[in-house]
Amino acid sequence: MNELTLYERIGGDAALRQLTDKFYDLVFAHELISRLFRSDKELIKEKQRLFLTQFLGGPQLYSDVYGHPMMRARHMPHTITEDDAVAWLQCMSEAVGQLPISNELKDELFDRFPRTAFFMVNT
To answer: What InterPro entries has UniProt attached to this entry (predicted)?
Structure first.
């Protein structure tokens, strides 16, 4: 049996584009964590979309373009606190909440993020 990935069940690329658009609108406006996102918003959104595609079971797009994600190493140049991780998760929760999917699927999607967010904490 071929079970659908979370990427497929949430709506694939269209859903991730909607998610990253809303998420980065929130992040770039956030008082605490906007300092972590000083470069090109469109490039950041695209990298996140590629990463989330593969993180959620879709094609390995991020690795195809940028190599192994090495997320902790890529985030090490930035000072990231537990408060930053919580703020990041709040933004992601709000963005996930706006997707046109079931509440159960929203919960399953959001549950993928806390472990990774706190893994990025380096201060």
So the answer is: GlbO/GLB3-like, Globin-like_sf, Globin/Proto, Hemoglobin_trunc
